[in-house]
Design brief:
The complex is a heterodimer of chains A (415) and B (268). Chain A contains 13 helices and 12 strands. Chain A has 415 residues and is α+β, with helices and mostly antiparallel strands. In chain A, helix 3 runs parallel beside helix 6, helix 7 runs antiparallel to helix 8 and helix 10 packs antiparallel against helix 11. The radius of gyration of chain A is 22 Å and the shape is globular. In chain A, 49% of the residues lie in helices and 15% in strands. Chain B is an alpha/beta fold and 268 residues long. Helices cover 26% and strands 26% of the residues of chain B. Chain B has 7 helices and 11 strands. Chain B has a 9-stranded mixed beta sheet, with helices on both faces. The relative contact order of chain B is 0.17. The chains are: A alpha+beta (415), B alpha/beta (268). Chains A and B meet through helix 3 of A and helix 2 and helix 6 of B.
Chain lengths: 415, 268
């Protein structure tokens, strides 16, 4: 993989603090830094940055205030190909790599982590579950719409099962001839549900088998018995809809089973591993965006005849935060490259998500302090980033779950 | 090209050359170089000249409206210009020509030389239209279009804010932004146009188009291949920062204002 990166070194550039460095500096070594990007990845990153700044930027405050995702943003995301980043070209996608998804998620999060959350879940969890575990037929049926028109939702969590995901109670009863299933249950905390055209629903076809009965069903929104509840009124990422979704005797043909019967638990674990890297990218973007929005103020504000950014006390603080952001970036990018290389990456993904979510909260918190009074009012972006950051420690695996995953990977090395 | 309908003549231009210059990004805080002869470009973000983005967009729209068959983008400069060309291809241009100019030769590349390059290419490529940005945001020269038109002996339509090809594709109606307002002219084809700010709003390069751009052809040439002498005719003696802008003051009355304008600013 490193050789491939080196071969692609011509036209490569770096992400992060050194983003102005290009190929001429990078290509002297066979082993490029983990922040190296190919020409394509760089172009995709820049398009995402431009779109985020010009289309999402002016709408951020209003969307946060009302909790409503602007239709112009939704249309723009689909029109520009941000909703089918890794989807195959003949299914209407871009056929780019996982790193490209992470870069889009990061760039969008620099402007609005709420919009980024939706893009992340849609690409890394919904699209990828279908393309990684679904049959050719399921892929052909659902991926094009997901790439070009409609959001998708991943329905796993319930009131009684969050971290203990496989304790889910939603049931799927087979018809006498096995040609269809009836799904009944209530899912909670479902992202993108307000706009979703398709739901990936995890239900148990046989509770006597425990988690080995869990099966993933692809359920179109129009199916009778599907009821999307009111979006939650959240602390942060407010315009990213999070809704309860109730399924009452929803009839689904057996053809809509994603992958194999009773293998749903495997798909869920598998996809959430990489989904973590996506969240890492979102939190990384949040931290960087908040930092970038705050730093210029430190060189405008003067107290005691000095720009506050020149006080050594302040220098030490923002140096620490810059270090934390760089650390998070290296973890996220490296985990993404490990996944692309086909290496096991569960531990690295957990580390990336855990670190990035901590760094997001720290950065936003510090930025509010550096701004002083202005940091505490909605006129300045820091307080929104702070509220948005908190979800990072909770969704797609709480911080404690990440720690448990890391320990599970470390322990056997020493026993 | 498109299939001709029996009994109906095809009314479109065959080919447009569009310039896309790689310049320091508009958002960057430019710094004077230590030698005082230029600005710092190393490690600084570059992108396509904004007026060239508008030029590329206009050419692509002409093609989408079936007024133009092929959009060929041209960039003159070091190997990094391939990124600029790729962006234009991702917007929808058909192919690119990269005229490779590097190092000190590139630092001294001036509008006259670029105009000569475009003149040669326009003839070689049998172009019926050349669309350039009205000026580059690094040198603000606003010369290439005019000189090129002179070299080719083609009409020029500078500061275009509206472009319309006639039904018989033999002329264009151009609305130009001028100091007094707007001027509408008619030029015969072939012609050289320079794009002004309000001509259009350039599209984003969609992600699928970025990937498709990889397959599009980009030819590399040198000024020598084109038989063009690009030696500079102008020598830059000095580059310096503009004077630091002083804070404004608030005056209490018109009398005070007049007094200050007369006795301090000495402009009355």
């Amino acid at each position: 993989m490193l050789n491939t990166l080196a071969r692609r070194g011509v036209g490569a550039a770096l992400g992060g603090w050194r983003s102005a460095l290009t190929a001429t500096t990078a290509q002297r070594s066979l082993h490029l830094p983990v922040t190296s990007l190919t020409e394509d990845e760089l172009m995709i990153k820049e398009t995402a940055a431009q779109f985020a700044t010009e289309v999402i930027g002016p709408r951020v405050s209003e969307m946060d205030r009302t909790g409503v995702l602007d239709q112009a943003v939704i249309d723009g995301l689909f029109e520009n190909g941000f909703m089918g980043i890794e989807t195959a070209a003949d299914h209407g996608g871009t056929a780019a790599n996982f790193m490209s998804s992470c870069l889009v998620i990061e760039e969008v999060a620099k402007i609005d982590p709420a919009v980024s959350a939706g893009v992340d879940v849609h690409n890394t969890v919904v699209n990828n579950t279908i393309s990684m575990f679904g049959s050719e037929e399921i892929q052909a049926r659902f991926l094009p719409d997901l790439a070009t028109q409609h959001y998708g939702s991943f329905c796993l969590s319930e009131a009684g099962s969050g971290s203990d995901a496989f304790a889910l109670k939603t049931k799927a009863e087979a018809s006498a001839d096995g040609s269809s299933y009836r799904i009944t249950g209530e899912k909670l905390w479902i992202s993108n549900a307000e706009h979703a055209g398709v739901f990936l629903v995890f239900a148990n076809v046989d509770f006597s088998k425990g988690y080995r009965g869990i099966t993933c069903f692809v359920v179109p929104r129009e199916s009778p018995g599907v009821e999307v509840g009111k979006p939650e009124d959240k602390l942060g990422i407010r315009c990213s809809s999070t809704c309860p979704v109730r399924f009452t005797d929803v009839e689904v043909p057996a053809e809509n089973i994603l992958g194999e019967l009773g293998q749903g638990y495997k798909y869920a674990i598998g996809i959430l591993n990489e989904g973590r890297i996506g969240i890492g990218a979102q939190m990384l973007g949040l931290a960087q965006g908040c930092f970038d929005a705050t730093m210029p103020y430190l060189f405008e504000r003067e107290q005691f005849g000095t720009k506050i950014g020149d006080f050594q006390g302040m220098e030490f603080q923002y140096a620490e935060v810059a270090l934390e952001i760089e650390s998070a970036r290296l973890l996220v990018y490296n985990a993404a490259r490990m996944k692309e290389a086909g290496m096991p990456f569960a531990m690295e993904a957990a580390m990336a998500k855990l670190k990035a979510s901590r760094v997001a909260e720290l950065t936003a918190s510090k930025c509010i302090e550096w701004l002083g009074g202005p940091g505490f009012i909605k006129d300045y972006p820091a307080e929104k980033f702070f509220r948005d950051s908190k979800i990072g420690a909770i969704y797609e695996g709480t911080s404690n779950i990440q720690l448990a995953t890391i320990a599970k990977n470390i322990k056997p090395l020493y026993q | 090209g498109p299939k001709s309908v029996p009994g109906k003549r095809k009314m479109s231009l065959k080919r447009a050359l569009v310039g896309c210059k790689r310049v320091i990004d508009y958002a960057v805080k430019v710094r004077v170089a230590p030698d005082g002869l230029g600005v710092v470009t190393q490690g600084v973000k570059h992108s396509m000249n904004p007026f060239d983005e508008i030029a590329v967009e206009e050419a692509i729209r002409l093609k989408e409206n079936k007024k133009l068959d092929e959009v060929v983008v041209v960039s003159c400069g070091p190997k990094e210009c391939s990124e600029t060309i790729k962006t234009a291809l991702a917007m929808g241009a058909d192919r690119g020509i990269h005229v490779l100019v590097e190092g000190p030769e590139y630092e001294k590349l001036q509008p006259l030389a670029v105009a000569k390059i475009f003149a040669k290419l326009a003839t070689e490529e049998d172009a019926s239209l050349v669309v350039l940005g009205k000026q580059a945001i690094d040198d603000d020269a606003n010369q290439t279009t005019q000189m090129l038109a002179g070299m080719l002996d083609w009409p020029q339509a500078t500061f275009a804010s509206e472009v319309e090809l006639s039904a018989d594709a033999a002329s264009m109606k151009i609305v130009r932004e001028i100091d007094g307002g707007l001027e509408t002219i008619k030029v015969s084809v072939p012609a050289v146009i320079s794009a002004d700010l309000r001509l259009n709003e350039p599209r984003f390069a969609t992600l699928p188009n970025i990937m498709k751009a990889k397959k599009k052809k980009v030819d590399q040439k040198s000024p020598a291949d084109l038989g063009v002498d690009i030696a500079p005719r102008i020598e830059v003696l000095e580059v310096s920062d503009p004077p630091v802008r002083q804070a404004g003051i608030i005056v209490e009355s018109v009398d005070e204002l007049v007094d200050k304008l007369k006795n301090e600013a000495k402009v009355l």
